[in-house]
């Protein structure tokens, strides 16, 4: 059995999409990031960066003690390698996939995340126009990278649907909220519609969708506490020697 430490965000959904595509059993362990579950000592043992997703595989390849993996890119590689699916191993094809997994982790995820963050801030947070332009332009550039890549290929790593597609898809779903006009990127749009129509992708995207709260249902004090918890994190002290 695989435990998926999860909250329904784009990074979490990458993993549930792959697990649904693989059809292997898994158990969702909610990490309520608004409440601060990501800071518990127990969670930090498997995810020292205090971020979800993370997995614990209780039946790792070769047996022995459970293996835990944090960082969604590492989780995708681990699960695809274990299952022997969605990651071709011929060296050229293998590194096509690795490059796009790294691209997603280093570019698309972080920049799209920052764009969303600055676009969501209210006027009480001050003038965000520089940040919105900086990250908005970068996200536009990244949709262009996808579009150009998909101009002459069906999938990101070539003819085959792989973890490179699964890891990139969830971050494209909110294109409207990111200030993107999908009609500008027709090769991307073709891929987006094809990937989004896959039943396993739809199931993976829907996992635990009902567990989030409507922020409007929280008191102003609780909303302020959660904002501080998520947006003002600083280093945790190392344990005493
Ligand atoms: N690079 C990490 C990013 C994970 C990440 O940012 N997770 C967010 C939710 S999407 C999180 O756990 N946030 C908790 C926090 O900010 O305290 C990955 O891809 O796994």
Could you characterize the architecture of this molecule?
By secondary structure, the chain is an alpha+beta fold. It folds into two domains: 2-85 and 214-231, Glutaredoxin, CATH 3.40.30; 91-197, Up-down Bundle (Glutathione S-transferase Yfyf (Class Pi), Chain A, domain 2), CATH 1.20.1050.10. It is 49% helix and 7% strand. It is built from nine helices and four strands. It has a four-stranded mixed sheet, covered by helices on one side. Strand 1 (2-6), helix 1 and strand 2 form a beta-alpha-beta unit. Helix 1 packs across helix 8 (199-206) and helix 5 (129-149) packs across helix 7. The longest helix has 30 residues, at 91-120. The two termini are 36 Å apart. Bound molecules: glutathione. Glutathione is lined by residues 9, 11, 33, 38, 50-53, 71-72, 105, 109, 230.
Main sheet specs = 4 strands, mixed
Question: Which strand order spans the largest sheet, edge to edge or round the barrel?
Answer: 2-1-3-4
User: What structural class do you assign from the helix and strand content?
Assistant: alpha+beta
C-alpha-based Rg, rounded: 19 Å
Number of helices: 9
Q: Architecture of the largest domain in CATH?
A: Up-down Bundle
End-to-end span in angstroms?
Answer: 36 Å
Based on Cα principal axes, name the global outline. globular
Number of strand segments: 4
Structure ligands: glutathione
Name the poorly predicted regions: none
Give the percentage of residues in beta strands.
5-15%
CATH class categorisation of the largest domain = Mainly Alpha
CATH topology of the largest domain: Glutathione S-transferase Yfyf (Class Pi), Chain A, domain 2
Helix-strand pattern, N to C?
Answer: EHEHEEHHHHHHH
Query: What's the average pLDDT?
Result: 96
Number of domains: 2
Q: Can you give the helix content as a percent range?
A: 40-55%
């Amino acid at each position: 059995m695989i435990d998926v430490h999860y909250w329904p965000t784009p990074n979490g959904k990458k993993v549930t999409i792959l697990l649904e595509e693989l059809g292997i059993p898994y158990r969702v362990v909610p990490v309520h990031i608004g409440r601060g579950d990501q800071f518990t000592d127990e969670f930090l043992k498997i995810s020292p960066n205090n971020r979800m997703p993370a997995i614990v595989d209780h039946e790792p390849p070769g047996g022995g003690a459970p293996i835990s993996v944090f960082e969604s890119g590492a989780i995708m590689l681990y699960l695809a390698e274990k299952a022997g699916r969605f990651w071709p191993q011929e060296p050229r094809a293998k590194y096509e996939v690795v490059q796009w997994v790294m691209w997603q982790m280093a570019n698309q995820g972080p920049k799209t995340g920052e764009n969303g963050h600055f676009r969501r801030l209210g006027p009480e947070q001050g003038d965000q126009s520089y940040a919105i332009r900086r990250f908005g332009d970068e996200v536009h550039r990244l949709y262009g990278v996808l579009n150009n890549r998909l101009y002459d290929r069906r999938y990101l790593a070539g003819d085959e649907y792989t973890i490179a597609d699964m890891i990139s898809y969830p971050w494209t779903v909110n294109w409207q909220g990111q200030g993107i006009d999908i009609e500008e990127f027709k090769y991307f749009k073709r891929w987006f519609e094809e990937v989004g129509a896959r039943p396993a992708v739809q199931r993976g995207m829907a996992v635990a969708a009902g567990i989030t709260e409507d922020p409007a249902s929280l008191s102003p004090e609780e909303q302020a506490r959660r904002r501080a918890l998520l947006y003002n994190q600083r280093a945790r002290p190392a344990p005493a020697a």
